[in-house]
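Data availability (excerpt). The following record was deposited with the supplementary files.
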Amino acid sequence: MRSRSIGVALLATGCFNPDVTPLQTEGSGTAEDTGPATDTGTACMAGQTQDCACADDSIGTQTCLPDGSGFGGCECGAVDTGSSTIDPTTGPPPECTDDADCAGMAEGECEQGVCGDDGTCSVQPLRAGTPCGDATEVACSGADSCDGAGTCSANDAPDGVPCSDCPLGSCACMGGACGDCTAFALQNDFITTRSIEGWQLTGGWGLYREAPQNFDVGPTVFGSQVFGTDGNRVAPYPSSETEQSSARTPPTILPPTLEFLSWNVDEGTGVDNKWVRVSTDGGASFTTLVDCNMGMPLPFCQFRTDRAPDDWDPITIPVPPMMVGQVGIVEFAYDTLDSCCNFEKGWYIDATNFATQCACLDDASCGGLGGECGTGVCGGTGECELDVVAAGTACGDATDVECNAADACDGLGYCAPNVAATGLTTCFDCPAGAGDCNVCQAGACPDCVSLPSVNAFSQGAQSFGGWVIEDFNGNGAGWQLYSQAPPNQNPGSVPVALSSAPAFGTDGNRQPPYPGAQDEHSRVTTTVDTVPPSITFNSWNVDEGSGVDNKIIELSVDGGATWNVLVNCGGGIGTPQPFCDFRSDGRLGNDWDSVTIPTGAFAGMPGQLRITYDTLDSCCEFERGWFIDNLNFAQRCQDSAFP
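Predicted structure:
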C-alpha cells in the first residue's frame, strides 16, 4: 500500500505547492473528486507523486506534470481505507485476502479472525456449542463448549442436581463434582420427574395424574401426581393384560419404618399380589417385609372396588432393626396373575419417607423439570416443585370436539388431555347424527354400524351410560340393572326372577339390605336420541300405583330447558298406562305390560326422556318397585364398545 506520509514526500522532492492543503491527519476515502488544484509555477520531477488533502479531509494524490513545471490537480476518491479516523494506538486494520490472513487476531479458542468483503480483518465469536477446553464428560460437568459470545463455558450442572457417582448412592452435584447428599427432602411427593430419577422400573410403574378408566367407569383423577402402576390395565385404555412388575428405589438410608400412602383398586390377596422388600447388598438379595399372599392384613392387600380419589390408606411397615440406618434399596412388586377384572385400576403410592430427593438449594437446581403448565422451583421442604399457571390455561392439543376437548392446565402444573373415556361416554356428533352414534373411542365419535331397535339393557352399565340419575330425598335412588325384583316385607318373601333380564328400574321403597323399607323420590334422564312416533317399552311393577307410588314420563326437545309431560299417573295426564295401576304381590316374573306412549308433533326431533318415581311413603309391605325393558329410545350401539 502506498505511503500516506506527506512530510516524507515533500522532503524527497524539495518542492512546495501552495495550492495543496498541508496534510495533518489521515481520513476516510470518498468517491467524490474535489477538483484539480493546478500548479504551474513550481518545478518538480516529471511523474513524481505526493499526497494531498481533499476538501473533505480525505487523502488524495498529486502527480508532477510531464514537463516538470509543477503538480497537477489533487486526485481525490482513489483510495478508501474503509474506516474513519485512524486510531493512533492501533493503526489501520491489516489487509487480508482470506480468513487465514486474520488468524492471529483471535485471542481465545472461542474467537476467530474473519476477512471481510472490504479486505479488512475483524474478530467474531464461534457458534454456541462449538467444542473447546476440556472434552471430559462426567455426571456433574459436560464437555466444555463455546457460549456464542466468545467464552469457553465449563457446562457444570447446577448445584443440587442429583447424580449417581458417590459412595452413599444418594448424591448431588456441587461445583461440577458429584458428592454425597448433605441433606434430603422431607418426603417424596412425586411432583416432578426428579422424584424417580435412579429408580429401576418395569411394567406399568411410573408417574400418574389419574388411575385409568376401567371397563365400567372413567378415570379417577388424583389430587396430585402420584407413583404407581395401572396393573392389568394397559394403554390405550381400557384394555387388559397380566402384569408382573416391580419398582426399585435408588440407594437410600433405611428408616425405622417405611411410611407411605397407598391406593389400590383390584382383587387383592391371592390374585393381585403385592409385596415390599428391602436389600442392603445392592440388590443381590432381598428381605421380604410384606407379602400379601402370606396373609398380612395391610390395606393394599385387600379387595378394593372403585374408590374416591382422596381415599388413601396410610401404611407403616417396620424395618428389621439390623437394617435401620443402612444404605438399602426398597422394592415394590405387583403380580396380577390374570387379566381379570373389569373394575380394576391398579396400585399407587405417595408421600414416602424414604428415597427422597437430595434437598434442592435454589430454583436453578430444579430447572428443566416443568412444562407449559408449571416451572420447576425449589420448594420449602427441599423437594423440587412446580410454580403453576392458572387452571384452564390452554396447553397441548387445541383440538376441541365432543370426545376430545381442548387440553388445559389442571392448576397443579400438568396438562390435562381431556379425552373422554373410551366405550363409556355417549356422543352425538358422529357423521350419522345424534342417536346413530357409537360411544366415544380414542377421542373420536364413530357411527354406529349395528343400532338395535330397542334398548334391551344387555350391555351392563353401558346400557344406560350417560343417563343422569337424581335422588331428591336423600334415601337413595335405586335406578340400576336388575335380574330379579327384591324381596318385600311379607313373611317368607323371596326375590322374583324377571324373565326379561337384565331390566332397568328401581326397587322403590325397598331399601337394601332387603327387605328394609324407606320412601324414594328419584328421577332418571336419558341421553339424546331422535324421538320416535311413539315411545314403547315393557313394564313390570308391584306397588300402589296412581296417586301414591306416582310415575311421571316427560320429553324435552330443547336440551332440557323445558319438559313436556307425556304421562303423569298421579295427575291423570296422558293415555292411561298399566304402570299407573295398583299391582299386588304374587305377580309372576314373566307378567310384563306392553306400553305405548304417543309423542305427537315431537316425532323426528332430537330429544330426551325423563322418568320420575315418587313413592311418597315407605308403605307397603308387598311392594317391590318398577322395572322397564326393551325401550325403543336411547338405544346403545351394538358395535364393539372397546378397541
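Summary of structural features: Residues 252 and 354 are 7 Å apart (CA to CA).
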